[in-house]
Amino acid sequence: MTHDLPIRREDRTGRHLTLALELGAGGLPVLPLRAGKGPFGNCPDCVDNACGGRPNMKTPGPCLCPYPCHAWAAATTDPHVLASAPWASAWRRAGGVAYYPGGAGLTVLDLDDADAVIWAREHLPPTRTVTTTRGEHWIYRGTMRSVNGVRESVDIKSTMAYARWRRPGTGAMAELPAVVRALAVKAPTAVRPAPGAATVPAPGGGGECRHRTPSYLERGLAMAEQRITEARSAVHATVYRTFLAVLSAHGRCGCLTDAHVERLFTAAQAKGESPRHCADAWANARTALGM
Fold it and tell me: What is the number of other CB atoms lying within 10 angstroms of the CB of residue 49?
């Protein structure tokens, strides 16, 4: 009877790096993953994305910092970066290799239990599948925004997200179908005013509330997106002030929907804000307005 010998740390480091280099050579942007499946946090120079996070803040792209400190944004195919000295410590401590699906033009449907797998097999077109600890990853060719919890135990990982590499998987990879894209679309839900909050009265003469006029709302949202996109410093403060302005103008008449809020969050995340920071800024702005 034989027993597996324990893998020495340097062997594990070499194994992860070798895999990363192989995946990178195949066009898959990769990064080291902690043992607990989380990405490595910001390095001291980049806490809260102080370095700017990306070379072009209007589009996703690689982190400017040489360390793997921005999760999905740090993923790279560059063998010189992956094998460089700044990354050595991360590979020594890594528990696995992660990859950036969106950077490779892919979308991963993360099915986290048996029921989710059964649902996918009944409702989705077949594609390449990878067995995970509790379920499966279904991988499609094409990108979309990443959303967690689109169904019970179902997450979408594509742009601005990472997935753990496990193995190549089986089956031919299909094009991203409309039925998967539709999972990320929520029915519009109006932002309701807090009890007792003042509402904006409709103009006299039976006219529509100006806040419900599509052109008025669209112009306000476009200006807000531009303000966030053009921020060159104090991004956190700019995002908060912009959210505050939008809610002040449009938050009490019921014209804002989830789709409108998603536009603002997308603009903020393109500047390096995390989903949590966006949610906190939105909640703080609502609180400041008594909503």
Answer: 22
Closest Cα to residue 248, out of 272, 224, 230, 227? 224
User: Helix or strand or coil: residue 232?
Assistant: coil
d(CA 247, CA 251): 4
Q: How many Cβ atoms are within 10 Å of 145's Cβ, its own excluded? A: 17
Single-letter residue type at 110: D
Instruction: Return the number of other C-beta atoms located less than 10 Å from residue 237's C-beta.
Output: 11
**At a CB cut-off of 8 Å and minimum separation 6, what does 70 contact?**
42, 46, 49, 53, 63
* pTM for this prediction: 0.61
Q: What percent of the chain has pLDDT over 70?
A: 79
Q: What is the SS3 assignment for 20?
A: helix
Task: Look up residue 190 and give its two tokens.
Answer: 């109006």
Q: Residue 147, SS3?
A: strand
